[in-house]
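We now fix the convention by which a protein and its fold are recorded. Here is one such record, which you should read through line by line:

>
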Amino acid sequence: MPDISFFLCIAPGNLLTIPEKESLLKKIGTPGKEEYFIRTIARGGKKLHLVAGGNGAGLLYGAYALVEQMGVWFYLDGDVVADAKMNPADFVAKEKLGKPLFSVRGIQPFHDFPEGPDWWTEDDYKAIFSQLPKLKMNFLGLHSYPEGGAGPEPLVWIGPKEDINPDGRVKPAYPARHFTNGNRTWGYIRRPTSAHSNKIGDIFRSDYYGTSYMEGIDA
């Protein structure tokens, strides 16, 4: 395999071992937070793939951007690797100075629906948090309802300030829930899993399905 190396640095000022340091600094300046610079440098018949970031986040985004140029695509539900193999000796990174268009970038999925985060497990949250940086995102918000026909939901609380403990926990609480097939939120019909045809309900542990913290709650 050809000798290919990667050089990653947190800030352009750290390009101490790169002879092209001055010309690079003149060209890219000082990247701001979450900004990055990618370039391939020839070095004695070898290739040095440079990723410089204005801070740790910029370096991470730059590393993922470099991997994208190698044929890997990132999506919220996972990664896609090209079927065709790339010859490392032929790879030259396209020079790029990446910078975010917005300071806050991310997703804001709605609760209330089984298609949304109401049924996310701990592993689902970890997987999504892992994918967001690959997509150059830095925010995850959850749209929740504190009251009304869709609420109250577990992630929001209404009450007076004196009912909040110093650590942020609340003293009194009231019933809250996320969607299960045992409630009628958003017009869904209450239908136990045992009512499914062809014994499909046998794959569920109980008649009423939801995320783990809603187990045993049928309304």
